[in-house]
Write a structure and sequence with these properties.
heterodimer, A: about 325 residues, alpha/beta, Rossmann fold, four-stranded antiparallel sheet, about 25% strand, B: about 270 residues, mainly alpha, MetI-like fold, about 0% strand, binds adenosine-5'-triphosphate, binds iron/sulfur cluster, binds magnesium ion, Peptide ABC transporter permease (chain B), cell membrane (chain B), transport (chain B), BP-dependent_transpt_permease (chain B)
Chain lengths: ~325, ~270
Amino acid sequence: MTGPPLIEVEDLRIDLTVGPSRVAAVEGISFRIDRGETFGLVGESGSGKSITALALIGLLRQPLSIGAGAIRFEGREIQGLPAAEQRTLRGNRIAMIFQEPMTALNPVSPVGRQIAEMFVLHKGKNWREANRLAVEALASVRVPAPERRVNDYPHQLSGGMRQRVMIAIALACGPDLLIADEPTTALDVTVQAEIIELMRNLCAERGTAILMISHDLGLVANVCRRVAVMYAGRIVEERGSADIFRACAHPYTQGLVDSLPRLGSRAALGRTRLREIAGVVPAITNFPEGCRFNPRCARATDICRTTAPETTLLGAGGLVRCHHHA
Amino acid sequence: MKLGASLIIGGALFALAIFVGLFAPWLAHTDPVMDANLINAEEPPSWTWWFGTDAQGRDIYSRVVHGARISLTVGIVSQLVNSVIGVTLGLTAGYWGGWWDDFVNGLTNLMLAIPSLIFALAIMAVLGPGLTSLLIALGLTNWSFTCRIARASTLSLKSQGYVQAARVLGYGDLRIMITQLLPNMLGPIIVIGTLGMGGAVLAEAALSFLGLGIRPPYPSWGSMLSEARDQITTAPWLSIFPGLAIFLTVLGLNLLGDGLRDILDPQSRSRRT
Ligand SMILES: Nc1ncnc2c1ncn2[C@@H]1O[C@H](COP(=O)(O)OP(=O)(O)OP(=O)(O)O)[C@@H](O)[C@H]1O
Ligand code: SF4
Ligand SMILES: [Mg+2]
């Protein structure tokens, strides 16, 4: 590999300030994404996926702050950059789409204008040119009759159409990295599949790397080449997507895999409940001693309750954080 | 949707006032200041003198028509100044918070504690009478409500997805305020502005009546009332017509403000959709 990776996170800790005290909401987070690569971050609600993404674009705000570690974009540390330079990265080199296409668009502005704003803001285009490019951008996300649709307000569009508009805005400036934070959870299943397919194709065509965030391991593994599983603020396993189903190493990942509906199984047909992992994710302020998964883990032993496991390297670039990994 | 009656009546009254103000030179029968003629002094209303004449024989109708120009200029310009000040302070205070927010809040509370007319009076006393001082005095003293609304709207809009999204897309603070926040709070700001305009028309009349605003012989409705004060029993038309003009304009603006609230208020809007 020549040159630095597109983005590299090294031993990141995010602190949450509660009154006079600080607790680590996530810690020891390390991963790298190369140009054009697809990388997934999976974990239950509250495991720290979204705040990790916010840290990547330099948008953590009080009470959250970066406590330790480094985030490098093309080898340059993001935190060290002046605010104005960070802003030229956001939307231009690193873009992001969210879960809620209903609320992520300005209700009083036509969607075309919201796309065009990106060209004005980051590419120094005049409005005439920007509006023309907005029609093209809308066409590229397969919105029918884009030259008419640009004048529509968000409330005139369906959820799927809005998410297409969000993708058009995010990809407008040709970013190097697209962060997709639960981009489809608010949509119907069929629309979901379309949107994911569209996002994947557009990014593949343009060589845009994807960081996909979701609690749905199946979805992420389907889109991404590599997957990191987060639990209670830590990455517990990182594997190639293919390996994760064949031979996952961490008991938590195993739990996630078991809870996925298999094609043709009774669960997939909705007749039986999926196997769920018993228990809940602990609160940040109340992480257990040792391995944070130990109260829910069937393999847990004494050492798990006292000592946090270190990272163990597996073959093919995989790693796991468990005393008794498979 | 059925437009409210208050919107239609208020809009019509305000439109009439604007029309009269704009076309005053064509609507007036005589020059409001120069055409004095003692032969026609204190004529009651008639076919020749629609609203009667004053002690110097000037046509009251022509003076009321020209007065619309001054009263509306004061009302509109001073309220615009108030809106710009209020929105700028409220928006930035709500957005940035911190010491700036504390400072703006303190200033707003101070303004609310002093009746704005008293404040305007004090400024007029310093600046002296005249149109410019009137615009300054009324434009600087009535922004506190706008400021409060703008600040409160900013606080609630700030957490909206599209404001967060704008930040993620690299919008700067100014761009977020102008494209994401301002357009979404415009409804209540316009309502407050319309009501405030009525207040400014009244305040102009009050200040001119006290001899601090527009000075005679220039015809503002307030200065006409001031001049007519001594003849209220002998020549009531001198007070009635400018008084009626003030009443109808302010009523119109208040009705318009209420009507606009019904269609622009975000709550009533979401009720309809
Ligand atoms: N602004 C904030 N103030 C306080 N705590 C926060 C804040 N933002 C996030 N947290 C906490 O940080 C932890 C991680 O939150 P995060 O939003 O990253 O979770 P997530 O993995 O994205 O979950 P989800 O799947 O629900 O989106 C949570 O416990 C949350 O309560
Ligand atoms: S370290 Fe122990 S408790 Fe934690 S996942 Fe591994 S076996 Fe379970
Ligand atoms: Mg999240």
